[in-house]
Amino acid sequence: MPYSPDEFYAHALASADAEGRLPVADMGGWDIFPYEPDSLRSKPLQPPVVPEPPRGGEGGNPCRRCADPERNVIWSDEHWVLVADEEPSGLPFVALLMPREHLDLGDLDDARAAELGVLIVRIERAVRALSGIGRVHVNKWGDGGAHLHVFFLARPEGLLQLRGSCVTLWSDMLPPVEPDVLAADLRTVAHALAAHGGRAHV
Q1: Rounded to an integer, what distance in angstroms lies between the CA atom of residue 76 and that of residue 199?
Q2: What single string gives the DSSP state of each residue in 101-119?
Q3: Cα–Cα distance between 192 and 53 in angstroms, integer?
Q4: HSE value, Cβ hemisphere, 13 Å, CA-based, for 116
Q5: pLDDT per position as a tens digit, 45-79
């Protein structure tokens, strides 16, 4: 039988120290991890909060995307928008794909789900075609907002230390990409997508 939230918490605490701190994850020793493991310690594990508080866009909380649906849009069609990241990133390209309608991943019908799959591949190809891109990572989290947002994160070519799941940590530490370089890459991707439909906004 699956753990209840309290049972899972008790199970986790059994591996914690007297302060409720879990051991540093194995990734602390990975060559892609941006920090030296000897300088780290985990925060104490907090007890579960059930029911969980509503995210942005649910339970009466406003949805930032629905409140300003054209903000930072670089490409769109009838059902989808590709949005430039709010803040300049240390990565060469960061954007989010979102449905126009206020939907989360599990809310998509089969037609929208099929469109999502095709768009993910098209965006990945367009970003990978930019100069100096080693890999394009595609991620969906969603603990902060109930409006589906799929991240596209481009790793600079040759910077192997930025590989994999730690790329978001590195992104916050690297200096932001120059605005004119970022604008040109956003424009290139938007126009590559518009060649298949929809329209570029940049």
Answers
A1: 6
A2: SS--GGG--HHHHHHHHHH
A3: 39
A4: 23
A5: 999 999 999 999 999 999 999 999 999 999 999 99
